[in-house]
Amino acid sequence: MKNIIFAFKDDVPKYKQIYEQFKLLIEQGKLNANEQLPSIRELAHSLQVSRNTTLMAYDQLVAEGYIRGEGRKGFFINELENLPFQVTLSSSNKNPSESSNPILIDFRPGAVDQKYFPLKTWRRLYNQALTLPESFLYGEPFGEVCLREQIAAYLLQSRGVKTDADSIIIGSSTQQMLINLGYILKGDFSSVIVENPGYDGAREAFKFHQFSFETVQVHETGADLSQLERMKSRLIYVTPSHHSPYGVSMSIQQRHTLIQWINKMKGYIIEDDYDSEFRYTQQPFPALASIDSARVIYLGNFSKSFLPGIRLSYMVLPQPLLNLYKKQFLYFESTTSILSQFTMAKFMESGEWSRHIKRMRLVYKQKMHYIVTELKKHLKENITIIGEQSGLYLLVKVGLNRSEDWLIQQASFYGVKVYPTSIYFVHNKTDNPIIKLGFTNLSFEDIQFGVSLLKKAWLEKTC
Amino acid sequence: MKNIIFAFKDDVPKYKQIYEQFKLLIEQGKLNANEQLPSIRELAHSLQVSRNTTLMAYDQLVAEGYIRGEGRKGFFINELENLPFQVTLSSSNKNPSESSNPILIDFRPGAVDQKYFPLKTWRRLYNQALTLPESFLYGEPFGEVCLREQIAAYLLQSRGVKTDADSIIIGSSTQQMLINLGYILKGDFSSVIVENPGYDGAREAFKFHQFSFETVQVHETGADLSQLERMKSRLIYVTPSHHSPYGVSMSIQQRHTLIQWINKMKGYIIEDDYDSEFRYTQQPFPALASIDSARVIYLGNFSKSFLPGIRLSYMVLPQPLLNLYKKQFLYFESTTSILSQFTMAKFMESGEWSRHIKRMRLVYKQKMHYIVTELKKHLKENITIIGEQSGLYLLVKVGLNRSEDWLIQQASFYGVKVYPTSIYFVHNKTDNPIIKLGFTNLSFEDIQFGVSLLKKAWLEKTC
User: Fold this and answer.
1) What is the pLDDT of residue B276?
2) pTM: predicted TM-score of the whole model, two decimal places
């Protein structure tokens, strides 16, 4: 066999590169059927990799039928006709659009601005947490007390929610909390009212326990709560501070309507207060849980306001549910890193958390203002902007007689990644498509460039 | 009102200390009914705490009826007869035994030895992970590819399991993985075979989806697999490398029996390989998943071998289940910290992981040897030691005609915390009680002292 020269790339595991190189050479006919391959040991030596690496590459080639092992004699190339099937190693997570043009600007929602992350402080506090003896044990099943106390103090101060550490449960994501919550609620409740459109991830979590759905219609101007009277469910999932995806907030009258209705029904409101920190035009409205904590399950998280990858969420439970929850989940390990919990507790205690939120509110407010200005300048009357008063993304309703798919594909063709909103609708939406644009980790230049590309993508073809 | 002097303790939140102090003074009659309390502002000032702190303390006292607010006039003490009910703020997590003697030695299982934790390396790699742009996004729903690749390579090398990154799912705990797994299995399987005794946490997770149970009896000498033929279930949860709690390993013959049976039944084995790294007397036996990967769901974790608080687990799924799983959970966020995932991937890639495991195997082997020697020396023929060949704890069967409760209480009276095994039994156990002793984070001196206290606790009273 001729010498094969590999130039290993850094971002792909070596065994995969070896596997792919051999596969290519076999498919191109550059290696002949029944030709012997170098032994695992020889190949490892000549490529300066471990034997595991070459073994994994050969295993994959054997599994896919490109080569065969003949015991001690070694490995040989198969006839191409003998290939049983062609499987690729590529991940099923891969986004098909990534195979087209390279993405220049990604309006991805749910990212945070790395530039303003309090790197030094966080490192210092994490490093401290690593020296605590408690970090080397299994933690509290419902979350570390020090963090729950900080969250209780924060909720009182910023959201008007009066609670204590004992009533707070810490988990790793809103969906995971909803799954656990569903487990204790499903005995008394078989259906849940969700917003339409609304957060698809919550619906997925409710499906986990076979809840059936009723829907409250939400418009760009707000939710239609008059429908509640006709509904049978006594459980409702809402995003009152910042509707997902429309971005509207419930008025204080709507909040009171909801509270009165739930008291009449003797049910529960699940209030997902997922990004209430970022309201730009006025003070945040008080949480539903601050009006009536007996009938409201309050959900919060640190993904939007701090770091998605930290995986820290929490919920505040009314007493009867808290008792049920603690009984049910006493024998379950917490799913949340103790180190992240200790670090966040210290971060909050030191006041850094409040400072960080204030700083980021200003940063994101400026970016929101900038993207709105740019969109209006370039896309003019072709779009309507929705939800610019708060939150970490905005929506544009596009009036070009084009489908959501077309708008996304066309943007992608110009190197811009934008996001759909059709996934939030329980039934298909019929009028003009609405595109979701995140901007939090983009610079002003990125935003400007991205919007100018969107103009080209959406308008130049249609003009 | 007289001046109240507080000496704040560090480990209890200040609002709670203020609340408890007032409560005590009111209950003891040292503050009179209708006496006015200092205002929130005055109290905050005189105690040098924030107004939130005093507000929270007062809120709690109001909620429990000790005091009342009279608008702008301030807060006043209620008549004691007016108290509507007495609720305590104390956590329901609190262990009742903590109120007795102070714990001098805690034989807690599931802790790791802090002294040998690779603090500097971990810090360095975590700090690197914090600078990656990917750390500021939501991560892959099934875990970061770089970590899955490292786990695939590790499983091949150390457990003989041939898999690839695509077939691995990363989660935060074994129980959370079992809950998700149960969700995709419950359509085809309504019951599961578990070991008796066996890991109680797994049973709790299966209950989440109303699985019914059949049990395979496990003795100190091993599992009785002859019972399998009589069972109706086609799903079995086992701990073949290190039975929980007995510590026995399945022989290669038993492994083959299990594999043949599951192929006949066309079901699945869930193999929980939770601490296979720590086998002291011989090489670890190969995993079931290395014999037949088509019918085995393999579960592993980093809690036992690295750090419980990191909350990193994984499972390897056979192809049909993998397809189901990915379809079902595509819309669920990962529950695992991206930062921990990136750090662990780098830690494994650099070879530090293998070195750490080797080092800890030696450390724990010495500790296991030491505790066995001490127990034999002090408790002699009164105990039988079970499971000293591997793992991070051992069991002692105590032949003193005393109950498990008595043994635990008596130890606690002498300042030693030891753990029950009755929780692992599906039905109550009738013969001599078995006590679980972890030792991994105790020094040799601690072990010696702890065992000498156990001798006093268990033997001196009975002699």
Assistant:
1) 85
2) 0.78
pLDDT tens-place string over residues A157-174: 999 999 999 999 999 999
Mutate to test the interface with A, among B130, B206, B323, B442 (most CBs of A within 10 A): B130
Contacts of B108 (CB under 8 A, 6+ apart): A137, B417, B419, B438, B441
Distance, CA of A144 to CA of A230 (rounded, Å): 42
Task: Give the DSSP letter of residue B279.
Answer: B
Q: Residues B316-343: pLDDT tens digits? A: 999 999 999 999 999 899 999 999 999 9
Q: What is the helix (H) or strand (E) element at residue A315, kind and residue range?
A: strand A313-316
pLDDT in tens, A266-286: 999 999 999 888 988 777 778
Pairwise CA distance, residues B338 & A337, whole Å:
11
Residues A13-42: pLDDT tens digits? 788 788 878 877 877 777 888 888 888 888
State the Cα–Cα distance between residues A37 and A112, nearest whole angstrom.
Answer: 49
pLDDT per position as a tens digit, A248-259 = 999 888 999 999
d(C-alpha A135, C-alpha B112), whole Å: 9
Q: Are strands B296-301 and B268-272 parallel, antiparallel or unpaired?
A: parallel
Q: Which of A332, A289, A324 is nearest to A183 (CA)?
A: A324
Q: Which alpha helices (DSSP H) does B160-294 contain, by range?
A: 174-185, 200-207, 252-265, 288-291
Burial, B133: exposed, middle or buried (Cβ in 10 Å; 0-12, 13-18, 19+)? exposed
Which chain B residues contact residue A93 at CB under 8 A?
A: 140-142
A interface mutation test: which of B138, B329, B443, B446 has the most A CBs within 10 A? B138
Displacement of CA B370 from its chain's centroid (Å): 24
Name the stretches of chain B with pLDDT < 70.
1-6, 11, 63-65, 80-100, 430, 461-463
Contact A138 B114 (CB under 8 A): no
CA-based nearest distance B61→chain A, Å:
13
Distance CA A437, CA A407 (A): 12
Give the whole-angstrom CA distance, residue A149 versus residue A133.
Answer: 20
The minimal CB distance from B114 to the residues A133, A164, A311 is found for: A133
Can you give B174-203 as a three-state secondary structure string? HHHHHHHHHHHHCCCCCEEEEEECCCHHHH
The residue ranking higher by pLDDT, A55 or A227, is A227
Strand A235-238's sheet: what is its strand order?
A: A168-171, A313-316, A296-301, A268-272, A235-238, A191-196, A212-219, A222-223
Q: Which pair of structure tokens corresponds to residue B167?
A: 């077939």
The tens digit of pLDDT for each residue in B392-447 reads 999 999 999 999 999 999 999 999 999 999 999 998 776 899 999 999 999 999 99
Q: Which of B136, B153, B332 sits opposite A114 (nearest CB)?
A: B136
Minimum-distance CB partner of A311 among B55, B117, B336: B336
Sort out which chain A residues have CB atoms less than 8 A from B166's CB and list them. 89, 91-92
Q: Hey, are the CB atoms on B335 and A176 less than 8 Å from each other?
A: yes
Report the complex ipTM.
0.76
Mean pLDDT of chain A: 88
Q: H/E element holding A22? A: helix A14-27
